[in-house]
Amino acid sequence: MPKKQAKSFDVIVIGAGPAGYSSAIRCAQLGLKTACIDNWHGEKGWNDHLGGTYLNAGCVATIALLESAKIYQTITHNLKEHGIQAEAVSVDIARMMQRKNTIIDSLSRQIADAFAHNKIDCIRAKAKLLNERQVEIVPADHSPAAIIEAQHIILATGSSPIGLSCAPIDNELIIDSTMALNLDAVPKRLAIIGAGIIGLELASIWNRLGAETILLEAQESFLSMADQQIAREAYRIYSNQGLELRLGTRVISTKKGSKKAGLERSRKVTVEYQDSEGTHALRVDKLIVASGRKPNTENLAAPEADLLLDENGYVHVDENCRSTLPGVYAIGDLTLLGPMIAHKGIEEGRFVAEQIAGRHSSVNYELLPSVVFTDPEIAWVGQTEQALRAMGEPIKIGTFPLRATARAQATGRTEGIVKIIAHADTDAILGVHIIGTQASEMIAEAVLAMEFSASSEDLARTVHVHPTLAKAMNSAALAFRNGLPAGV
Prior knowledge:
Blueprint: E1 4-14, H1 18-29, E2 34-38, E3 41-42, E4 45-46, H2 52-56, H3 59-78, H4 93-117, E5 121-129, E6 134-139, E7 146-155, E8 159-161, E9 174-176, H5 177-180, E10 189-193, H6 197-208, E11 212-217, H7 228-240, E12 244-247, E13 250-256, E14 269-275, E15 278-284, E16 286-289, E17 293-295, E18 328-330, H8 342-356, E19 370-372, E20 377-382, H9 385-390, E21 395-401, H10 406-411, E22 417-423, E23 429-436, H11 439-451, H12 456-461, H13 471-482
Parallel strand pairs: 1-2, 1-7, 2-5, 7-18, 9-16, 10-11, 10-16, 11-12
Antiparallel strand pairs: 3-4, 5-6, 6-7, 8-17, 13-14, 14-15, 19-20, 20-23, 21-22, 22-23
Helix pairs in contact: 1-8, 3-4, 3-6
């Protein structure tokens, strides 16, 4: 049966995650007739949730659950110092998940409302790029497949968890990061393969809710992408919180306990791994595989489309996010232009939309902030100390401990430091690294300062509200000139 010929658009966006929805909305705002195709699958199959992994099974879901876990930990461990008594405190995981899902529903509706307001055609379907002008769609409602056309096509299908042959996902005992945000009970003992950003964020949630949590990390160094002074501080803090971090470990096999009628919840999984001391076995209730993510490019384009991918499935693009096909762009997690972070995709979405509309803009990949949404948070922008020393750059460093600020002491959140790295000769800020509560909020000031080529003196002379955590940024800058300033 011939495929139904559908209408044409100025722009077709494939994917409605942060990169996709931001590009679709900006295209429409600039007067371009726009369609956005999305095929998000939740736990129960197709659903109407826009927002991609970021909203449904990533940052937003993680932050929502971590906030609940932090409240539980505060009530059970930290209330007495405030003179507050609480008894018979318990965790209702179902209600916790319901709250998380309510937040996701609300934000997804906001995206849908923005699509409707900007007259964007939202198509629930699987999409395949046929050539530089045509996309085949297979609708979610099982209506006939069709071909739609556009002068410009933006690929924004995001990424998905990488599986491991030694730990095949069964969504029961061995789960991926998506399922780890939808558990119906707190595991007594939990192991996570991977102590990167995703693994640490998941560990922060379930450890606070009472799970004995062990992270198995193949690398010998901890958080190698972060500044190593900050990484060492993070290792100390997380270890003190009860996370067991086993570095230099390579998982070689997993074995699930046999099923017995009525005893499903008592089944365990045994993880066999190797380190410098030999081979070991670890028996846990749940195993989370958090070993990284891969771009969703499988079956994205028909072979005859001749879309160029690299050996790892990333779309080959130039500095303007243009693929090898004229009029076809790739943004967000599909490319190696910057890390897999939501705000990078959002900026690229706007950037490409404005290119298509003939407007000049840019994305400063050198100043993309990174955040680890643990507690305390880690955030950084610019270069690390180890990278700058390896390049032979003359640098100077100013640091300030959060425990020296009045705000941190008043809130009882004193762990962490602010670190500013500046050029020794020009005083230009080269990198800012923070570990502490609200680090993700504090880093915005550093990004703005570096975007406008500020010096450490500029930060030192900028008046900050006192007492605030942000004052620690000012104090770290003052440390270049006056030694360690008073925090109070």
